[in-house]
Write a structure and sequence with these properties.
Layout: H1 4-13, H2 24-30, H3 34-45, E1 53-63, E2 66-78, E3 81-86, E4 117-122, E5 128-131, E6 138-141, E7 148-152, H4 156-170, H5 186-190, E8 201-204, E9 210-213, H6 216-229, E10 241-252, E11 261-271, E12 274-280, E13 300-307, E14 311-316, E15 325-329, H7 337-346
Parallel strand pairs: 5-9
Antiparallel strand pairs: 1-2, 1-7, 2-3, 3-4, 5-6, 6-7, 8-9, 10-11, 11-12, 12-13, 14-15
Helix pairs in contact: 1-3
Length: about 350
């Protein structure tokens, strides 16, 4: 340890997404390669000597206690824990952080000294992993509100790779087997005796950590919600969700340089007739076991919706991934001009 393959892999993965800005401390981490990265992990992050770094990923993260603050993090998976190396701007982003982080002695005179905060979730405390729709994000849950984190990878490949690595690491844990019998038949495992409906698909790992995947009903519920938001009555059977993707809406920042903009996280949903932008709650659903009341806001809140027939053109930028798309609509007060023209000039 570490193997040449691992060194090469974590070096390739150690790249901050171009569209996101991070602090100096995380830029320093992103500049490390190979052995220097492993030495940094053991010298500055690892809690015990005999743990091994297995995977590295850059991702936006959300915490259960601060559901409105999305922050960039370097996620490090070892044989003992998951480490979230966070942007130091996160500390000052929310007034409720005082109980969450210890911020004593943070001012350092040495300008070459880079300080960042690290959130640690021990693998022994891990209880469940919820994978989001189309593998766009996943939520890691422990035993309390302090131990729930959502990684917004916005990339099915990164989600899949991390889940595979996490399962491999969990297989190394020695946990005592649960006392209840493990041989359950299909119907008692997945079926609810009261409703007869299928529950979300669960995979119970040998370490007793649950991996929960969305089932077909979630797409059905989403389609129903989208149909509710549409102006006209739509046959739910004919409504197909063609695309679900976590994206950013680009908003120009007022009073600053022309090229500066803020990125607002949005869920983009495309149907055969409409394009929708939703504000989605990625951290509160499904409700954790300790939650005593539902969250303050719904899972999906409509931010914008436009008819495809009003789409005039799509402008594409020349930069590499992530691609910037500009949708130009010609819906003048939502009037269908051709229809009015036909009535005025060609109707009797």
């Amino acid at each position: 340890y570490p193997s040449e393959f691992l060194l090469q892999k974590i070096t390739e993965d150690n790249q901050i997404p171009l569209h996101l800005h991070v602090s100096v401390s995380l830029q320093y981490v992103a500049g490390l390669k190979g052995n220097a990265l492993v030495e940094f992990f053991h010298g500055s992050i690892a809690e015990v000597e005999n743990e091994e770094l297995r995977h590295l990923m850059w991702s936006s993260v959300l915490f259960y206690k601060t559901p409105n603050v999305e922050v960039m993090a370097c996620v490090l998976l070892s044989t003992k824990a998951i480490y979230f190396l966070l942007d130091d701007s996160f500390i000052h982003a929310d007034e409720h952080q005082s109980e969450f982080w210890t911020t004593e002695n943070w001012d350092c005179d040495n300008s070459s000294f880079h300080l960042s905060c690290c959130f640690v979730l021990k693998l022994n405390d891990l209880q469940s992993v919820n994978v989001g729709l189309f593998d766009q994000y996943f939520r890691i849950a422990g035993h309390s509100a302090d131990h729930i984190v959502t990684c917004l990878t916005r990339d099915s490949y990164n989600t899949h790779t991390f889940i595979q690595q996490l399962m491999a690491v969990l297989s190394l844990l020695a946990r005592t087997p649960s006392p209840e019998p493990v041989d359950k038949d299909f119907y008692s495992e997945f079926g609810s005796k009261t409703t007869g409906k299928m529950e979300n698909y669960e995979l119970i790992h040998s370490s007793r950590v649950k991996f929960i995947y969305p089932n077909e009903e979630e797409i059905g519920d989403l389609a129903f919600l989208v149909a509710e938001k549409m102006d006209c009555l739509t046959d739910l059977q004919s409504l197909n969700i063609l695309l679900y993707v976590l994206a950013f809406q680009v908003n120009p920042v007022e009073g600053s340089a022309p090229n500066t903009s803020s990125l607002q996280p949005k869920t983009l949903i495309l149907t055969s007739s409409d394009l929708f932008l939703f504000d989605e709650d990625y951290i509160s659903y499904p409700l954790p076991d300790f939650a005593k009341e539902p969250p303050q806001r719904d899972k999906y809140q409509l931010a914008d919706g436009r008819r495809i027939r009003h789409l005039d053109r799509v402008l594409m930028g020349y930069q590499t991934y992530p691609q910037a798309l500009t949708f130009v609509f010609d819906d003048v007060q939502n009037q269908d001009l051709m229809q009015n023209l036909a009535l005025d000039h060609f109707g009797e």
